[in-house]
Specification:
heterodimer, A: 379 residues, alpha/beta, Immunoglobulin-like, Rossmann fold, six-stranded antiparallel sheet, 11 helices, 19 strands, 28% strand, B: 312 residues, seven-stranded mixed sheet, 10 helices, 46% helix
Amino acid sequence: MTHPRAIDQLIAAWGDASKVKAFLTAHTFPLVEDAHVTFVWMGEAEGVNVRHWVYGLESSTTLARAPNTDIWHLTLEIPGNSRVEYKYEILRNGKGEWIEDPLNPNRARDPFGANSVLQSAGYVSPEWTQSDSTARPGVVERVRVASKVYGHRVVQVYLPARFRRTRRYPLLVVHDGSDYLNYTGMKTVLDNLIHRLEIPELVVAFTDSPDRLREYAADENHASYITNDLLPYMNAKFPLVDEARARCLLGASFGAVASFSTACRFPNVWGRLLLQSGSFAFTDIGRRNRRGPLFDRIVEFVNGWREKPSAMSQRIFVSCGVYESLIYENRSLVPLLDATGMQVRFVEARDGHNWQNWRDRLREGLSWLFPGPLMFVYE
Amino acid sequence: MSDPTTGPTAVLLGAQRFEPTLAAAVSESGVKGRIAVVTAGWQEREDEDDELTKHLDDRTVNLMLYRRGEQLFREDREFARAHKERQAILRSLQDVYRLRLDHALEAEQEVRASKQPESIREEVEQACIDAIRDLDAWHLYQCARVRAEFNEKWQPLMRESIARHRGELIEELSDCGAIAIAGGHVAVLVNRLLLFGLESLLGQRTIFAWSAGAMAVSQRVVLFHDNPPQGRGASEVLDAGLGLVPNVVVFPEPETRLKLDDLPHVHLMARRFAPSKCVALPARSSVIVKDGRVVRSNGAIHLTHAGDTLPS
């Protein structure tokens, strides 16, 4: 296809309310025609921009108004299987207001609110992320963990369906635990993957930090809390397999840095790592990374590790979206991890720095780190 | 291993969790008396059999083979150690077999995808399948050898600890007209069934078996999944089963595990395991085997050599 046609139909229909309504009913928005995606907003404004989080494209791009209509539109080429989060910026009276796309019901929620989501040709929301009535549900309970470092912390613990104290379980520790529960639907994901036997029954500790930008930035106190406070607590309270291969740290963004630095500070304690879109900032010269002072301690830590890479775990799954700037840092980290002799798997997705990207990679990551018994169990 | 050509009637059923058909099958067979139940595949959850008991109108007695095994290993340490070592050897054999099998399956796939002259195509494809069959046979032979050496050395059924359990099992089976073998972890299930030599205690009692249970009573246990989260799907021979149902390879839960519309794949399965019949058992299906022959089937799917599937 050389030129997307659908938007022309909408423009031609303008002035005939019933035809416009029929068009809106018959189509989903943005309009996806092969590799062409057309953003559409309708209304009175001085200007309309689409604001998106795709590294490599201009972060703000202007929609054009079709003559003699209130239709604003912009066509971009977006590769298949992509997810792009965006908002519209509506300019009125010299001011811009950011809104979600009223024509698109797809939303991605995060701690800052919600964005509209464009799903380009071929992207399908994985069915294992949807609630499955045949999957036996696990439970999430709150526990209070005493910490020499932090006083105490509340942790949410997932116990799989049919949890039994006579059985021993692997342990997964999740940074930004509440966000993983709320924005990736991780309880549903765990219920489904366990039900499908794609991962074994796990005990999962969802941890949170009241000051994540400090605590997760390669902070030794955090590493100590996770390894010297939380792990012994979990071992004492739940029947866990007491081996590194059955312990995993998971985190995204700064949470991935926290996972990585905790494993580095306590080598061979955490045998599995799942690092999503890690903020592994580093410099080849100088100490200050372009990302600013928040990253200073991370840069120092990552530079130190890059200088003398050493194995600290057994198996590491790294994922990153190609539409996020951190793809550079993650791609740079993988060969070094590989060279240490650890088993490393790196997966890229046409997605950004967001929770749905991290959700969509959970099946591949968890089932590689903790293969389930699906070849052996036939219920 | 008992002689399957004069053995008991076996009724193989589809998965029972969501659409149980066991009670109807038991009723239809006219079995009298209690029904011995094996839920060892459920491992630690072996005793969570309330639903099954209710489904069979409280006619059940659970043989508790998993718990008996754990108890046996606690009591007879010497035997437990030897058994553990044997299991480690069997696992190593499985790993080696799987490595070799991966290459053989890949070769078969590549050869099939390549354009070969018509005059040699059939022959080279058959050679690839023969290589896979040889590997399967090698693995089964090695497993049998390891088991035979173990049995020769340790004479498990003669050991006091096992003989005592067998005595109790004989008593529990005495007023049972049938045995129902549930699914679960197929390796654990086969292990427990063989550990107590259950096949030699069954007599002519009717066997009802589903999912892993149906695999366990067959001659050859084949592990399979066509759509795993990692790697391409594969199927591999685990070991011999109890051999109560000969010449049938059982594939439970085909709805989620088998790509039945992938004709070349179905074709390969059928030729790989021939002359055994490859029988997929979807929910609500049943196959009745008597004296080593399938005498009736309902809803089961036979994977044919033509690469198509047909109702059995």
